[in-house]
Design a protein that fits this description.
Blueprint (H helix, E strand, L loop, with lengths): L5 H6 L11 E6 L2 E6 L3 E10 L2 E9 L10 H16 L4 H16 L7 H12 L6 H14 L1 H4 L9 H12 L3 H19 L25 H4 L13 H9 L4 H12 L3 H5 L6 E2 L4 E4 L10 E4 L2 H10 L23 H13 L22 H11 L5 H7 L7 H6 L5 H15 L9 H6 L1
Antiparallel strand pairs: 1-2, 2-3, 3-4, 5-6, 6-7
Length: 440
C-alpha cells in the first residue's frame, strides 16, 4: 500500500545534524523519495534483475509537477518500469533507447549545459529552501568545484569519469564539502533527466549507490580528525589565574566556557532565561546546539560566580545576553575570545619565541581546545568516561546504544563539574565585578 502523499512529499525534510547521506522514504514496490542534505528531492526505483540490486533515477521530485516529477508521475514511471521487468526487459536500457530515438526524430536543438541545468534547478527550488544562504552555498560550491570542469558540458554527455574527475581532488582534502558537491551534481542531473525535460537519459553518473561507491571510498573513511591545540590539563589552573588578571566581558565569557566545557558559540549566545541559579543549571535549547538536541550543564560554584559578576550588566530581561558586547550590546564575536587567548599567548614575547600557552606540539592554544583539556583531565580521574562525553554533548557513534541511553545523568555529572571547577580555580583566582573593574 502506498505510503506517500502529495502533502508528505512537500513537507518531508532531511533530518540534518550528524546525518550527511541522503535519506529515503518508501512509497511501496521499490519506489522511494530520496532527500539529500539541503532538502533536495528525487525519485528512485529499486528493483532486482538477474539477482542483482539496481536503482533507476526517475527525476527530481516536485509535488506539483512544475519543475520535476510529481508523485503520480513517479508512480506511473515506476509501474511502466515494472511491466518492462515482467516482460524480461531492463527498464534502464529501455529508457535510454527511447530517449535516443526521441533525439533522433525530434532533434535536440540547443545543447543544455550543466551550468544552465544548475541555474534552472536553483531557480525552481530556491523558494522551498530554508534560507537565501542555502542558495548562495549551492552557487558558490558549484562555481568553485564544478563549473570550471563541467559547467560548459552538455548534460547528456557527462559521464562517471567526468564526475570522478571533479570529486577526486577534493574527496580526501575536504570530504564533507566533496560529499555535498556530489549530491548537488546528482540533483542537477536528475532535474535534467526529468520527463518534462529529458536533456539526458542515461544513468545518473553522480549517484553513489551502485556507481561512485566503486570509484571512491566513503567520506566517513577518509574524514580526517582535526585536533585543536589544547592546553595540558595540568596547566589549566595557572592559565585561569592569568585569565583572572584580564578585565572585560570576553575574559569572563572565556572563563565560563572553560568552566562549563562548552563551545564558544553556546556561551556567546547564552541568555539569562537559560540559567536557573537556584538549581545551578544551564539549559541550552536544541536550536543552539551543534547536535540539535537540548543540553543541560551542571554549574559549579566558580561558574556561578562568573554569572554573579556579569549580573550587573543585565537589564533584568529574560532574553538579555549573559555576555553582551561592551561596544554594541549584541553577542560577542568569536574573534573576541580568540584574540584574547592569542594575546595571552604572545603578550610580552618577541618574534621567534614559543607561545606562552601552548600544546604538546608547541602550537598556541585556541578557545575550542579547552574542551579537549577538560576531556584529558576527565580521563585522568575515576569518573566514568560516558559522563564527560555527555558533559561535552558528544553524540554516541553507537546508534543502538544512543537510542536507549536517553537520560542526561545531570545529577551524576554534577560532582564531575564541581571537581573541574575546583581544579580550574585552585590557584587562588578571584573574580571582580565587571562594573567595578571598569572604574579602576
Amino acid at each position: 500500500m502506498p505510503q506517500l502523499s502529495v502533502a508528505k512529499v512537500r513537507s518531508a525534510t532531511h533530518p540534518g545534524g550528524k546525518i550527511k547521506r541522503p535519506v529515503r522514504i518508501g512509497d511501496g514496490a521499490g519506489l522511494c523519495l530520496q532527500i539529500a542534505p539541503g532538502d533536495t528531492k528525487s525519485w528512485l526505483l529499486r528493483f532486482t534483475r538477474h539477482g542483482k540490486a539496481r536503482e533507476m533515477g526517475l527525476g527530481a521530485a516536485d509535488p506539483d509537477g512544475r519543475s520535476g516529477v510529481s508523485l503520480s508521475e513517479a508512480r506511473q514511471l515506476a509501474a511502466d518500469a515494472r511491466r518492462q521487468l515482467q516482460a524480461g526487459l531492463d527498464p534502464i536500457v529501455e529508457r535510454d533507447k527511447a530517449a535516443l530515438e526521441r533525439r533522433k526524430t525530434e532533434g535536440r536543438g540547443k545543447d543544455q549545459t550543466l551550468r544552465k541545468a544548475a541555474e534552472g534547478y536553483i531557480a525552481a527550488h530556491r523558494s522551498g529552501w530554508k534560507s537565501a544562504k542555502h542558495a548562495d552555498q549551492w552557487q558558490s560550491t558549484l562555481e568553485a568545484h564544478v563549473f570550471p570542469a563541467l559547467g560548459g558540458m552538455d548534460v547528456a554527455n557527462i559521464s562517471i569519469a567526468d564526475v570522478v574527475g571533479v570529486l577526486k581532488p577534493i574527496w580526501q582534502k575536504i570530504p564533507e564539502t566533496a560529499s555535498r558537491v556530489r549530491q548537488r551534481i546528482e540533483a542537477i542531473l536528475d532535474y535534467a533527466a526529468a520527463p518534462s525535460r529529458r536533456w539526458r537519459s542515461s544513468e545518473n553518473p553522480a549517484r553513489w549507490r551502485g556507481l561512485l561507491e566503486h570509484e571512491l571510498p566513503p567520506t566517513s573513511k577518509v574524514r580526517s580528525v582535526h585536533h585543536y591545540p589544547s592546553l595540558p590539563w595540568q596547566q589549566v589552573k595557572t592559565f585561569m589565574a592569568a585569565l583572572d588578571e584580564r578585565e572585560g566581558v570576553a575574559a569572563q565569557a572565556l572563563k565560563f566556557a572553560i568552566l562549563t566545557a562548552c563551545r564558544s558559540g553556546e556561551v556567546r549566545g547564552a541568555v539569562w532565561n537559560e540559567i536557573d541559579l537556584e538549581k545551578a543549571t544551564w539549559t541550552i535549547p536544541a536550536s543552539r546546539m551543534k547536535a540539535g538536541r537540548l543540553h543541560r550543564i551542571a554549574l559549579s560554584r566558580p561558574a556561578i560566580k562568573v554569572l554573579e559578576a556579569m549580573r550587573p550588566l543585565s537589564s533584568g530581561k529574560p532574553k538579555d545576553l549573559l555576555f553582551p558586547s561592551p561596544a554594541s550590546g549584541r553577542k560577542l564575536s568569536d574573534m573576541a575570545l580568540s584574540q584574547l587567548v592569542r594575546g595571552m599567548s604572545s603578550d610580552g614575547l618577541g618574534k621567534g619565541h614559543l607561545p606562552r600557552w601552548r600544546d604538546s606540539e608547541n602550537r598556541a592554544v585556541v578557545v575550542h581546545g579547552f574542551r579537549s583539556t577538560f576531556k584529558s583531565w576527565a580521563l585522568s580521574t575515576s569518573y566514568p568516561d560516558h559522563l564527560s562525553e555527555i558533559a561535552l554533548s558528544h553524540s554516541d557513534r553507537n546508534k543502538v546504544r544512543a537510542a536507549y541511553a536517553r537520560e542526561d545523568l545531570l545529577d551524576e555529572r554534577r560532582p564531575l563539574m564541581d571537581a573541574w571547577g575546583t581544579l580550574c580555580t585552585s590557584a587562588a583566582s578571584k573574580i571582580a565585578n565587571i562594573r567595578d573593574a571598569r572604574r579602576k
